[in-house]
Specification:
Radius of gyration: 20 Å
Structural class: mainly alpha
Distance between the termini: 40 Å
Order of helices and strands: HHHHHHHHHHHHHHHH
Helix content: over 70%
Length: about 350
């Protein structure tokens, strides 16, 4: 069991390291172009890299190349970028020094809060290592992902539940199933919960101090404690929506008024909108907030493109093949295809 856990967590560590490399490279590029000077935290960098990885997997699957070689190439690219940036900036040594100094200078209350957070996270580490048994994951999340892994391309599978839904986060599950790993999707879902805790800590530390930040992150972990043992997408959606809000707030307070954080916010929100229909409700609020902050047409165009890149495929595909970009949710407006009004009403009753 110990060897099994070490193997899977080592693989997860490599994936997150590669995501950090992709995210860090993207932030450096955006900062050069947009003039934003604020530095993102590690959790935000990994989250951006995870979103970029999802986009790359989506494009591979659309092209019919969701195979081992291209997937490994994405990991190798991210890991290579990460190693290059570590060698150039000496970030690893500096980060360890800062961590040690921060712990030495912490008060008793801060240390107690940090230890509480650590215990909360440790209590979740065993949960993702079990086989898939959750209702939603075995009903449609992993079956859809398995179909894509077997065919190497994105396909509509009408014999499975919710064939027309957007499935951005499930592409990560499909990539792991390409390698025959049916437990690794649990870790990919769980890492979204841990990254959200990291973002909460970063934000809380900035505005309220480390004690409040640690307790806030601890509360989050305890609230979603039952979600670490499955391969659904809810913690992934929560991660990208929250990260989009954090990025937008960073853009709002950026002294240089650079638009890099706006692009990041729009992109992260787009990843979430490509993972679950419910996140469409946030699009109107985001648009109003952008309009309130920056009324330049160029900013609107930039935000629209960044938002669309990760999610436009799902909605365009649905519109072209069924006439309903939000199939089956938009059936009453655009017309039903495989569902009818009774099916839709029954689904909402289930949700209620």
């Amino acid at each position: 069991m110990a060897a099994f856990a070490l193997e899977h967590y080592a693989a997860l560590g490599l994936v997150l390291f590669a995501c950090w490399g992709l995210g860090r490279a993207a932030f450096r590029l955006l900062a050069l172009r947009a003039g934003a000077s604020s530095q993102p935290g590690t959790a935000m960098v990994i989250t951006l890299g995870l979103g970029l990885s999802i986009c790359l997997l989506q494009w591979l699957a659309i092209a019919g190349h969701l195979r081992r070689g291209p997937i490994l190439a994405i990991v190798a690219l991210g890991a290579g970028l990460a190693l290059f940036q570590l060698l150039v900036t000496d970030r690893k040594t500096r980060g360890l020094r800062d961590l040690g100094r921060g712990w030495r200078e912490a008060s008793f209350h801060e240390r107690f809060a940090l230890a509480t957070l650590l215990l909360a996270v440790v209590s979740t580490l065993a949960a993702p290592l079990g086989p898939p048994t959750g209702w939603d994951e075995v009903m449609y999340h992993l079956p859809h992902a398995r179909q894509w892994a077997e065919s190497g391309r994105l396909e509509v599978t009408p014999w499975l539940r919710y064939p027309w839904f957007p499935y951005n986060y499930d592409l990560l599950f499909a990539a792991s199933l390409v390698f025959g790993q049916d437990v690794f999707p649990h870790l990919l879902h769980a890492c979204a919960g841990w990254l959200t805790a990291g973002l909460l800590f970063d934000v809380g530390r900035t505005y309220l101090g480390r004690t409040a930040a640690a307790y806030a992150a601890c509360i989050w972990v305890l609230l979603v404690h039952g979600e670490f043992d499955n391969a659904t997408i809810d913690m992934g959606v929560a991660l990208f929506v929250f990260a989009a809000c954090v990025a937008f707030q960073q853009w709002r307070v950026d002294a240089e008024r650079g638009r890099a954080w706006m692009v990041v916010s729009a992109f992260l929100l787009g990843v979430a909108m490509g993972a679950k229909y419910q996140t469409l409700a946030t699009a109107a609020f985001f648009g109003l907030a952008v309009l309130w902050r920056d009324r330049r047409p160029g900013s609107w165009a930039l935000a629209a493109v960044a938002l669309a890149v990760p999610c436009i495929y799902w909605y365009a595909r649905n519109a072209l093949l069924t006439g309903d970009p939000f199939n089956p949710v938009g059936g009453r407006i655009f017309g039903f295809s495989d569902w009818n009004a009774g099916d839709l009403q029954g689904q909402f009753e289930d949700l209620r």
